[in-house]
Design brief:
6 strands; 2 domains; alpha/beta; binds FE2/S2 (inorganic) cluster
Length: 186
């Protein structure tokens, strides 16, 4: 039976008395959530402050860094799409399925992308890593056998302030190979 959580916002996205709210129902990492939120609440703040999944980061106020990237199913077309969750309102994700970095590991096993970042030193401070991995996954779902140039283009919307791009690209190449060999997707 699907797990389900219902409720008002947690403290980080508190709604004041008399304030207008709208209902949002989403499935995140296989769990259904249902809340009443402010109409202007951004999806990234819904995920972090209302649902409490803080692996999705906020690194800018300008939609440039990609630290907030998640996958959403059915937003445009049927498949999964990597989206900067600070560029959407929570209400725009109503009825959709969302995958965040917390939903990648299965049965205690890291996803090939997570393991490849670990094994290839694809992170330094790690702040960009959740968004980088989710962007890479969205990209690899569309292009499972990318060239190095295509990988660079695929993650061009994500910034690493530690500038560890060489090992990030190496990690994505290694993960792509393993995902092809094992037939891993999400
Ligand atoms: S927080 Fe920087 S792009 Fe979303
Ligand atoms: S590893 Fe530090 S921001 Fe990318």
């Amino acid at each position: 039976m699907p797990r389900r959580r219902v409720g008002g916002p947690r403290s980080g996205a508190a709604v004041e008395a008399g304030q207008e709210t709208v209902p949002v129902r989403v499935k995140i990492n296989g769990v259904e959530y249902s809340h009443n939120v402010e109409p202007r609440l951004l999806l990234v703040h819904y995920i972090r402050d209302v649902v409490g999944l803080t692996g999705t980061h906020v690194g800018c106020d300008t939609s440039h860094c990609g630290a907030c990237t998640v996958l959403i199913k059915g937003l445009w077309g049927d498949g999964w799409l990597a989206v900067k969750s600070c560029t959407l309102l929570a209400t725009q994700a109503d009825g959709k399925e969302i995958l965040t970095i917390e939903g990648l590991a299965k049965n205690g096993e890291l996803h090939p992308l997570q393991r490849a970042f670990w094994e290839n030193h694809g992170l330094q401070c790690g702040f960009c890593t959740p968004g980088m991995i989710m962007a890479a996954l969205g990209f690899l779902l569309r292009n499972p056998s990318p060239s190095r140039e295509e990988i660079k283009w695929g993650i061009s919307g994500n910034l690493c302030r530690c500038t560890g791009y060489v090992n990030i690209i190496k990690s994505i190449e290694a993960a792509a190979k393993e995902m092809r060999e094992k037939g891993t997707a999400i």
